[in-house]
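User: Predict the complex with manganese (II) ion.
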Amino acid sequence: MKLGLGLYRHMLTRENFQFARQAGVTHLVVHLVDYFKGGAHAAQDNQPTGNQRGWGLAGDPNRLWTLDELLALRRAINDAGLQLEAIENFDPAHWHDVLLDGPLKRKHLQNVKTTIQRLGEAGIPIMGYNFSVAGVCGRITGPFARGGAESVGMDGPCDAPVPLGMAWNMVCDPDAPDGFLPPVTHDDIWRRLGDFLDEVVPVAEAAGVTLAAHPDDPPTPTMRGHARLVYQPRLFQRLLDRRPSPANSLEFCIGTIAEMTEGDVYETVDLYSRQRRVAYVHLRNVRGKAPHYQETFIDEGDVDMLRVLQILHANRFDGVIIPDHTPQMSCAAPWHAGMAHALGYMRAALQAIAAQ
Ligand SMILES: [Mn+2]
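Assistant: Here is the predicted structure with manganese (II) ion placed in the model:
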């Protein structure tokens, strides 16, 4: 197993690459979507939360990430002594009609394919994605973690409908008319995912890129009136079986799995790592189950993280593990301190497992 760190777009600086190296990180996972443009966030130095209008404005629908910028990014990361393991999340501006089954679906499927081909050409092995209409939303912040550290949680279901012009919890069309997206059923969303996998998995295979699906976060059967895809552990298997291929794999989020109301975290980790379909791991601890849970520090909460890592090791998982979100620590650099704490715990755990 390799120690990684996820960086948001505005954090892609030489200083943060050095921070990662100093913490013992060897691999980076990079977000190229700017989640913080024009949104209602408390601070950029935290995971995005937003309000019912989402995180903010999506990117430029007419400008995909270029091969040159992907190559330059990889070179800058390599120059800092690190590897670029994955890009996490497509920009909703580039693929919203794949999620919504809208009039631009053909064009947006082509956008996804072009992006994956460019990742392959740039030597970036994994593309993480989250196939969701409502996206990551419905959450609250509060002093939920040890010592009153601010973190994120959920306090009951979120049923507010999604306004037209929004997808994946971002605004794709600021000029959309008033009104709301029509609700999506479970059959609808699985059909849309099937269309996506049938078109994109062969392209990913040819490009040497692994697609990695994140489960729905928070994992509720519906969110804002829209059916969710993977909100229980058994539904990962349905996603994998829909298009069996090593290129159809998982962005395995331990925190989200722990929030699921069915199944057992340790059995779930064993089941999917044994199949070798875990592309990379988000490590995060929580207290409670959706829709009532709180994110905690990695060494508190409901999950025995050492046991999770031991299972991954026993199943010969050799990919990257990154801290997911962490609570904000009270100091001048709340995000960095939270990440350094989680990375220190993870590094010690990996050394202890290797020594056994
Ligand atoms: Mn996650």
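The chain has a mean pLDDT of 95.
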